Amino acid sequence: MGFLINDKWRIKVKTLALIGCGPRGISALEALSIEMEHGNKESIKILIFDRDEIGCGRIWKTNQNDNFIMNTPASHVTIFSEINNEKNVVYKDRPTLAKWVSRSQEKNIKKYKEEEYLPRKVYGFYLKWAFSLIISKLRKTNEVILLKEEVLNVECDCKGFYTLRSKNKYEKITHIILSTGHDKTPQYNSIKRKILFLKGDSFADINIDSIGNKNNVFIKGLGLSFHDILSSIINKAGGSFKKRPDSDFLDYISTGEEPKIYAGSRSGLPIPARGINQKEIDFKYESFFLNYKNLNKNKNKDFNEEIYPLLMAELEHIYYKKNIENHRSISESLFFDSQHRKRRNPFKSIPEDIYTIFKLDEFEKINLYKIARPFSNKNFASQQEFEVNLLDVIDKDIYNSSEGNIQNPLKSALDVIRDNRDFLREQVEFSGITSKSFSEDFRINFMPVCSLLTAGPPIKRMYEIKALIESGILTIIGPEPKLTSDNSGDFFIHSKHIPNESFYIDTYIDGTIPFKGLKESQSTLLKNMYNKGFIRPWSNLDSYGVQGGIDIEKDSFRVISKTGAARKNIFCIGIPTENPRWFTQVGSGTANKFSQFSQDAKKLASTLIDDLVSNEIFLENKGC
Q1: One-letter-per-residue 3-state SS of 160-215
Q2: Where are the alpha helices (DSSP H) in 366-455?
C-alpha cells in the first residue's frame, strides 16, 4: 500500500470515502471533479455511501408524495457551481431545476414544467441526473464505487489508515468526507393513556394511516413541517381545494373523512409566505448600509450593536423607498433614496428631518420582532376573537405576498435578509460575534425570527390555510399552547393567551425539528466518532458557551479532534456543522451565483485535492 518517509506515507492509491450523498455530498463531488479536470490527473478510488437513496439522499428521495413541496422557485435552484461568465467550464450542460424540468420528456417530470415551486421528489430526480453526470466525469480517471449502506463506525490503525464499518468492512481509507445531512431522529408512535403521540424529523417518513375522521389531532409547530403534515392529512382524506371564480382565494371541498385538526406554536402565527418571485436569476442586490465599509473588521463583534443596526438600515431603506414609489411617485422615491443614503448614520435611526420631510409616519413602521410575534403580550376573550385577528394577519400576508418580492414594500424588505444571508454568515460564523451576543442576541432572538420571516412557503399554502380555517377543519389556537389532562385521562390543548377555552385531542403530532448538537446526535456514526475523539462539538468557550455541531476549520472544512487539532484527512460539510456555521440546511446552490453553498464545496475540494495529488500524504498515526 505504501511506505513511511518523515512521518508521511507514500501511497500508491488514495481512497476517499464520501459518507452521505444528498445535495451537500453531491456538491463536494462536483467541486472535486472540477478541481481534477483543471489539474489532477492522478487516479484515486472513491467510495460513496448513502443509507437511503444514492444521488439525492433521504430528504429529497424520489418516492415521496407530491404534496411535499420546495420553498425556493425552481428557476433559482441549481446543484452546479460554475456560473455563466466563467471561463473553461467543466460542465457545459448545467441547467437550473426549472430548465431541466422544462426540457424533460419523462411524463412524471414534464407535467410540472409550469409550476414555480416543485415537489421535493422532482428535485430528487434532478439531483440524481446531475449526480450521474458528475460520476461519469469522475470515472474517466478514477474508480468510483456506489454503496447503499449506512456507515456505523470509523476506526484508525497504527499507520493512520481508516477502516469504515457498515454491514461490511472497508479498509485502507485515506480520506473521509462527512456530509450526513439531517440527523435521523428515531420516530415514535406511542400511546400514553388516551393519546397517540407521533414524532419524526421528516414527515414524509411518518405513517398516518391510523388517523381518521373520528380523531382530534393537534400539530405542534406552524413552520414548514406543519404544511407537510397538514397536506398529508388532507391528501389522505381525499379533500381538495377549488379556486373561487372571482379571485385567487380557495374553498375547501371536504369528503367528511378529515379529522378535526388543531395547531399551534409559541407565536401562534403560521410561517408567512414568501413574496411571489419577481427576480430574474441574474438579480444581484447591492447593499449600501450593510457592507464591509460600515463594519468593524475585528472579531468579537456585538450583533445587536454592530450588525443588526446595519441590517435594519438596509431594510428600512428599501421598505420606505418602495412605499413612497407605490403610494406617491417614482421621483419622490428617488429623492428619498439619495437623501437617506447621504444623511443617515447606519447605526442610528432615520434622521428626524428625513422622517418629517418624507412623511414616513404615514407608513407602518417595520419591526421584525413585532411582525414575527403579532400576538405577543395580548390576551383574547375567546378562540373566535383570536381567529378574527389571525385571519386579518393571514389576509395581509396574502396581499403582501401577492404583490411580489420586488413590488411589495414589506416582502422586498424581508428579501434583503435573504439577499444578504451569505454576508451575515461571514460576520457571525466561527465566533465572529461575542459568545454572549451569539447566545442571547443572535441564536435565541434573531435566528427564529429570521427563519420565520425569510424561509416561508409559496403563497398557495396561505390560501389553503385560510380555506381550511373557514371550513372548520382547521383551528389554529393562540400562542404558547399547553397540553393538559384531566382525572379521567383525557387530554386537552389550550393557549395561555385564551384562558377560557380548551380543546379535547386524542392525537398529538410534534411537527418541530429542533437542531441537535453533536452530543445529542442520534447518529451511530457520529456518536462513535465523538467517543473515539475524532470529532468534537463546537463551543464558544465561556460562561455563555453554546455547544453545537461538529467543530471544523474555517477554510479547510477539516474536523477538529478532541485535542483541539485539525484532523488532516477527515472533512465535514453541511448540517452537521451547524452553530460554528449558520443556516446550513440550504440544499441547493443559487443559479448564476457563486453562493455560500458552492463556495463551501470548492474550499473543501481545494484542500482535499492538494493532499490527493501529492505523492506523499500525511496520515495521522498518533493516538490511533
Answers
A1: CCEEEECCCEEEEECEEEECCCCCCCCCEEEEECCEEEEECCCHHHCCCCCCCCCC
A2: 368-372, 383-403, 409-419, 421-428, 435-436, 447-454
d(CA 286, CA 423): 11
Eight-class DSSP state of 76? G
Edge to edge, the sheet with strand 616-618 lists 2-5, 8-11, 616-618
Whether 26 contacts 179, CB under 8 Å: no
> Using an 8 Å Cβ cutoff, are 108 and 65 in contact?
no
Report the C-alpha gap between 436 and 441 in whole angstroms: 8
How far apart CA 462 and CA 405 sit, in angstroms, is: 16
Question: CA angle, corner 295, sides to 291 and 297, nearest 5?
Answer: 120
CA distance 102 to 113: 5
Task: Give one word for 557, left, alpha or beta, with left for phi > 0 and alpha for psi -120 to 50.
Answer: left
Query: What residues contact residue 321 under an 8 Å CB cut-off, 6+ apart?
Result: 333, 336, 337, 340
Burial letters for 423-436: b for 16+ Cβ neighbours within 10 Å, e otherwise?
bbbebbbbbbbbbe
The answer to whether 364 touches 453, Cβ cutoff 8 Å, is no
The pairing of strands 15-19 and 45-49 is parallel
Q: In angstroms, rounded to a whole number, what is the distance separating the alpha carbons of residues 521 and 533?
A: 15
Residue 69, SS3 per DSSP: strand
Residue 215 burial (C-beta neighbours within 10 Å; 0-12, 13-18, 19+): middle
The rounded average pLDDT for each run of 10 residues, N- to C-terminus, in the chain (624 residues) is 49 88 97 88 90 95 94 95 81 94 93 93 97 96 96 89 95 96 71 79 81 95 95 95 95 97 97 95 91 85 96 98 98 98 96 97 96 95 97 98 98 96 92 89 93 95 98 97 92 94 95 83 94 92 65 95 94 93 89 91 93 65 50
Q: Rounded to an integer, what distance in angstroms lies between the CA atom of residue 428 and that of residue 437? A: 10
Q: Looking up cell 424588505, which residue turns up?
A: 413
Instruction: Tell me the pairing of strands 153-156 and 162-165.
Output: antiparallel
How big is the chain by its Cα radius of gyration, in Å?
A: 26
